[in-house]
Q: What sequence folds into this?
């Protein structure tokens, strides 16, 4: 009669076998190349290689070449025709990342053109801005750009905040946004202008509410 330990070992072997089969299937069907963010694509591909136990550079190279869309092959044509003796996968990886990765200059230019806050939380907007800046802007500059993207009433309240840490300030902005009245910027139908007196009262009320909330 099989022992409990034998059953557990058999189950473990079956589970490992299933995992290897899934991993092998994933390698044969790599995700489509993501030209908008090649760095993340290669991170995903290398995670699949790691799960599948693939460590040889040549094997990684062959899988990428076999799976990548033909539209991108011209960008690595010279590597395919005359591959280096060593580091073939690395050569393809570096070429595709250099070709399709957005330059830091482009990221900063896009950042300086302003990010729309839309329906997202201020803290989410700040994270996007930090990603775009990639450490190239100090917190003082980033704070100025961040505050410019916020609604005027929210920015007005944050000017009295004693919080200096930018991430903590963004969390405060989240709280303020959650307390905002959707009618704060309501335009009067008759005059077509914003009721500044009403807005001033609402901002003061919102400041008091925020102070009590925090």
A:
């Amino acid at each position: 009669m099989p022992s409990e330990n034998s059953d557990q070992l058999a189950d473990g072997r079956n589970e490992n076998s299933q995992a290897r089969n899934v991993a092998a299937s994933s390698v044969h069907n790599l995700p489509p190349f993501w030209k908008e963010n090649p760095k993340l694509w290669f991170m995903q591909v290398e995670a699949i290689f790691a799960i599948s136990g693939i460590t040889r550079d040549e094997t990684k190279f062959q899988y990428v070449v076999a799976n990548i869309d033909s539209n991108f092959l011209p960008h690595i044509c010279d590597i395919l025709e005359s591959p280096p003796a060593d580091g073939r996968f690395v050569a393809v990886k570096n070429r595709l990342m250099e070709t399709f990765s957005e330059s830091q200059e482009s990221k900063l230019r896009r950042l300086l053109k302003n990010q729309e806050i839309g329906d997202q939380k201020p803290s989410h907007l700040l994270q996007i801005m930090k990603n775009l800046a990639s450490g190239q802007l100090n917190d003082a500059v980033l704070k100025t750009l961040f505050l410019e993207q916020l609604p005027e009433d929210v920015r007005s309240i944050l000017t009295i905040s004693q919080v200096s840490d930018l991430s903590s300030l963004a969390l405060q902005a989240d709280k303020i946004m959650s307390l905002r009245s959707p009618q704060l910027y309501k335009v009067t139908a008759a005059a077509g202008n914003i009721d500044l007196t009403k807005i001033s009262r609402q901002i003061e009320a919102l400041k008091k509410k925020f102070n009590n909330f925090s």
